[in-house]
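User: Predict the structure for this protein chain, please.
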Amino acid sequence: MDVTPVNTAVLDGQSAVLRCHSDIRLSTAVSWTRRVAGGGDEIIVVACNFRPNLTLSSVYSLISDDTGQCDLVVSRTDTSLTGLYTCTESSGQTAEAHLTIIGELLSMLLGCFTDVVNERNTDKILSIVAETL
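Assistant: Here is the predicted structure, written as structure tokens:
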């Protein structure tokens, strides 16, 4: 894998993109799972078909193409979608990233803070949160 997902933090209600790119360009080259509470894995997609803009559900969709790209889009996030997401190549190679969704209360606090300091600080604060995971 030459592009792997990175830890990401977003505000409740925003969307997130977890990037994955496989060197193996087969229709079954990439799958996505999410570790859920209790230790089980939720299967999101078994095989990325490398078709552009494939909607999987009201929550998940894929940005993919025939170059091996298979990015997972998590839309309309809420805190229940926080977790460890894993991109797995058919060769068995995996890459993981934590997705953290910052809830409404913390989101309001961040909003107050960034309004006072600088409106552009929200992205910086979210990147700091993601880096600390």
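The helical segments are 104-117, 121-131.
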